[in-house]
């Protein structure tokens, strides 16, 4: 449920609503817009309580039930576009932001060369995997901690923010000390343990779409991050699994306007898996 | 199999190859490029004959087996992009071509208004369905012959080429008397009877992708049109069926570069089904 | 809309309902059960007329709108299971019926041998394709008319009913002179021209599921057959297209109970495409 | 690579092979069959070494590369069916084993009643979820530790083994103290951190198929469990995501014979998600 307060509602009015919500054992999130405050009520059985319970409180303009499974990611809770700012680089705004780099960090030479190429090409953020979620236990799993150290080194040398994947909730602290943006990969989109840990870290995060998850499931997974108070969430469309076999995945370009309509979160596109050809991804921004 | 002749091969050399092919009971198609001629050998059991049979003939440069199921639609048979020209409007070239109009022709007023809007918006080709392939027999099946007459009238009045769907092989002559471009719909992409009839008509045709057909199946279906000598074939990506349910279909944008790579045929995009929101489609051209 | 008449409704009462329906320009189908008659109203805009128009007529017990896209195939129009009887072999009843035979008829020897094996194995119906809908125009398209003649010969010799595919509306008469059951293949499930022709023929028909069509689309396609008065319709689940690539198609076994619930039509299963291993199919009957 | 030893190979011969493997930095798993021993070589770059390196060693009969991405789950590494035995109940053998119970443990009364019904119905194993992986953070996540305690109580009272889900690698020890079988759910099939932890626990485990993962990916995920030395792995087909929308998932029954052919692991079927109607699953065994 969403409780919309009147313009200029007093702190006392807001507190009264919050206390009433908590009396049911529910959580609350406040969205303080420039003009008015919206109180999101979060709980597993809010459907059993009448909206009137809150509608009668002073300063309340309206109370609405959110019918979609996702709440905090929805435009109903937050109408304006969310922006995520990384060292002054704004993601979700009008400027196109390009993130590029190797799939896996392999050596200092490789990463240095990549960073230089990325900078030269005008991209703003360096990407490279230290931990790789491999489908087989017998595949190279990344340089792991050594890869993180290389990322830290190159990041400092080139003064460029880095994004790197985190695959284990126990690694979140370690990875976020180096990473400017954490990446949650497609296979972990519904790894709720990991999402909760990344949410608690408050570190900016790119949540890649599960390759067979619907837009609704994706936004509901984002709620796990947002529910822990991490508002720096960026969605990344990277292609879905379909019957088509000439490409590894089919980039679901139609998902972008759907997300723009229903969610306030910024969404970027990773075309590399869809076509299997280029390892870069581009912010869709507003354009 | 593809037999590539030397630059400047004589007619006699080409005829010799053709006769040798025909002696096996196979068909032949000649692609006379600006520089050299390519002979496509078409038959159901060409795999049982050695390429040497043709390689030894005078004027032959190379003989290649086409491993893909599609032959005439492949770049191996024809390396240069095919262009389809409709009243001077070139589809498959550098200029963006827009086709627009109502899903179904409903009345003279509606079609007139649509034609005016289409012209005003700078679109080049008017689209409208007289015959509609409806999933239920109890749905409106289009104005049929009366719809065709309206198309003819409006086409003349606005001097704009029209594209309209054909659903029955017995209608091909009737429809192509009015239509500048025939449209074969998604559900008929593998209606081989209809494809053969449209192929024989030699009328320009837009072949929409079956909503669950692979790119390979689509190009192989195009071979049915090309095999009858109809070279004015335009492909149209219109979205595929996936698990995603926030859009009716998922526009498979990744298919465009795949087709550009493997086929010489022009491909356009119909974004209306993918998003379910706008009824227009745009030539992808070379851009 | 479905108009249910009282038990023992007179012919006059029924005629009155039928005439009222026709006055709107709609079609009608009567289902005369052992106890009572149900009048199905068939038209493209029945939603615009109140059910009261029919509810007030004498002998009418109830008037219900059918919310599903399919009408005649639904249990709402006909509550009891439909049986299709082929030379005394009942399809859709308690006995398991097996149909078997080669994919394509190739020669008299092959078909004779197959028929003998089929009989010896206790199967009841011989299957074999004379017309084959091939994805490439350069593949073997079946023996066509010569194949039909072989089927006629072997059918008489072994006194066994045959099922064979029809791919072109213009062939329906020719094929149904030999076939005891026509088969409409997966790629033609939404070839409405063909469905209408097969419907008019009144010949028993197996309607295979389009490999990417939903159960709802499949039952709606069956309506095309039923709307022409052909009640001898058998559905055949043969596998759907999914992302899984270890089998050519995934047999959608879950579809059987869904169909049993929503439709009165018998449904059989063709496991050959799903596994790509055995070319036989089995009646699911009630078991 | 698979090194097959001669019948009656000595321990010394086997040790020599193992040491040679380890000299490359690779891991090794021994399958000691009743007749002969097979040495599986596990490493990320085995493709760079010639099979001859091992073929020349004494006692070696053959050396084969495994071309499939999965190794330990393949029949090439282990030809005979694997059986998993739970308190004398054999899974993967000829007897049908039924596991049943509520989706989530809700209360002692509910679980007691369920256990009684399960026993009365002749099922062998009680199922119930204490930890539930919910798509929304605002849904009921299960009774968690309290649910485990209820399972322990009811298990003892009814003397019935229990299976319950584990969702977090940090819970594996806690859950396996109560559970006779751990369950890894569909959304965690590629949660490699969790798989590794469950592998290390050596506790019997049911690995449910990711709802959009191929059979190949599924068997490769099983390798994560097997690589840690946990041989008590049971696969569970529970339906895949397809375009069909009349059921929540489509039970991929065709996957069972594929797995039986390529893997030695037992596979069971959970029909509850496919149809969305009954919450029980059945061993496919050999029947």
How are strands sequenced across the largest beta sheet of chain A? 7-8-9-10-11-12-13-14
CATH-level-4 superfamily name of the largest domain in chain A: Aldolase class I
Spatial separation of the terminal alpha carbons of chain A? 32 Å
Oligomer: homotetramer
Compressed to H and E, one letter per element, the order of chain A equals: EHEEHEEEEHEHEHEHEHEHEHE
User: What share of residues are in beta strands of chain A?
Assistant: 15-25%
When the domains of chain A are counted, the total is: 2
Gross CATH architecture of the largest domain in chain A: Alpha-Beta Barrel
C-alpha Rg of chain A, in Å? Answer: 20 Å
Percent helix among the residues of chain A? 25-40%
Main beta sheet of chain A:
8 strands, mixed, barrel
Poorly predicted regions of chain A are 276-287
How many beta-strand runs of chain A? 14
Shape of chain A: elongated
Structural class of chain A: alpha/beta
Mean pLDDT rating of chain A? 90
Largest interface (CB within 8 Å) is between: A-D, 35 and 35 residues
- CATH top level label of the largest domain in chain A: Alpha Beta
User: Within the CATH hierarchy, at the fold level, what is the topology of the largest domain in chain A?
Assistant: TIM Barrel
Count up the helices of chain A: 9
């Amino acid at each position: 449920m969403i409780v919309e307060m009147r313009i200029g509602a007093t702190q006392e009015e807001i507190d009264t609503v919050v206390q009433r919500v908590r009396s049911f054992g529910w959580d609350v999130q406040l969205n303080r817009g420039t003009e008015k405050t919206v109180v999101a009520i979060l709980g597993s059985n809010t459907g059993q309580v009448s909206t009137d319970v809150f509608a009668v409180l002073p300063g309340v303009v309206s109370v609405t039930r959110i019918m979609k499974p996702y709440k905090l990611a929805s435009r109903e809770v937050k109408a304006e576009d969310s922006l995520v700012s990384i060292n002054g680089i704004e993601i979700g705004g009008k400027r196109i932001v390009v993130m590029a780099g190797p799939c896996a960090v392999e050596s200092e030479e490789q990463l240095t060369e990549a960073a230089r190429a990325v900078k030269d090409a005008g991209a703003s953020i360096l990407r490279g995997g230290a931990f790789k979620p491999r489908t087989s236990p017998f595949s190279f799993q990344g340089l792991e901690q050594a890869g993180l150290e290389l990322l830290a080194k190159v990041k400092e040398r080139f003064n460029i923010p880095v994004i790197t994947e985190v695959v284990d909730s126990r690694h979140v602290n370690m990875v976020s000390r180096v990473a400017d943006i954490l990446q949650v990969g497609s296979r972990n989109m519904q790894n709720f343990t990991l999402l909760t840990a990344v949410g608690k870290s408050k570190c900016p995060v790119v949540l890649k779409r599960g390759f067979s998850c619907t837009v609704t499931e994706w936004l509901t997974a984002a709620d796990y991050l947002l529910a822990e108070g991490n508002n720096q969430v960026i969605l990344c469309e990277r292609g879905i699994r379909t019957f088509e076999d000439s490409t590894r995945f089919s980039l679901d370009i139609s998902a972008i306007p759907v997300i723009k309509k229903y969610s306030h979160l910024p969404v970027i596109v990773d075309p590399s898996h869809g076509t299997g050809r280029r390892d870069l991804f581009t912010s869709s921004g507003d354009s």
